[in-house]
Design a protein that fits this description.
207 residues, alpha+beta, Jelly Rolls, 2 domains, four-stranded antiparallel β-sheet, 8 helices, 19% strand
Length: 207
């Protein structure tokens, strides 16, 4: 559903790309055909496996998840995307390949659907924005490498602490099984880790 009552200059999307990316109001006006605000109800899919991803999704408000499904239908969460985060399947988006992933709204959300041409044309018009995109790509690669390393080498406790650092405001917004799925552990293991951390905190306060 198109969100027609949005005032662009008052949005997180506008502030994000002007303050961090160096875009001007004129840039947004010039390339306004390449992005749109849409209301996305809870549990709505923005992308399904085997579809070709055609947009990047900026979360103006709400919460998205990116995940895959195993042969038994089990959900393996790759990423959460709260406010001011961007989620997409870059391989599908830029190489026109069917996606292996799903992107879905966990909450009722307001999402900016960004066409690849917006980023390309804005980069060509604004050198600061081009540098910003390059830095963003490098940060994304770093985050993905760190996530792979955590799944391969970190303990459940270390993964949970890293999760809280990455998503400090998410603990009360998603159910425990989703956090466990993201961490690659069972809900029972997550409960144990949380109890251990709570006990550690209590013991530290007694000292």
């Amino acid at each position: 559903m198109e969100a027609t009552d949005v005032i662009l200059e008052e949005t997180n999307f506008y502030r994000y790309y002007t303050e961090k990316g160096g875009l001007s109001k004129e840039d947004f006006t010039k390339f306004s055909a390449y992005f749109s605000f849409k209301e996305v109800p809870h549990n709505t899919y923005l992308l399904r496996a085997d579809e070709v991803c055609s947009h990047s999704f900026f979360v103006e408000s709400g919460l998205l998840e990116s995940f895959s499904l195993d042969e038994k239908g089990g959900e393996h969460i790759l990423q959460f995307a709260p406010e001011n985060w961007i989620v997409s399947d870059r391989a599908s988006l830029y190489f026109d390949k069917p996606s292996e992933y799903y992107i879905k709204a966990i909450e009722h959300s307001l999402i900016v659907f960004i066409q690849p041409d917006f980023l390309m044309k804005a980069s060509q018009a604004n050198s600061d924005f081009s540098c910003f995109l390059e830095n963003s790509l490098q940060r994304n690669i770093y985050v993905q490498q760190k996530r792979i390393s955590s799944l391969l080498a970190m303990t459940a406790r270390e993964r949970y602490l890293s999760f809280m650092e990455t998503y400090p405001g998410l603990m009360l917004r998603v159910p425990q099984w989703m956090i466990a799925s993201y961490l690659g552990i069972t809900p029972e293991s997550l409960s144990r880790v949380r109890r251990e951390l709570l006990n550690d905190d209590r013991n530290a306060r007694k000292k």
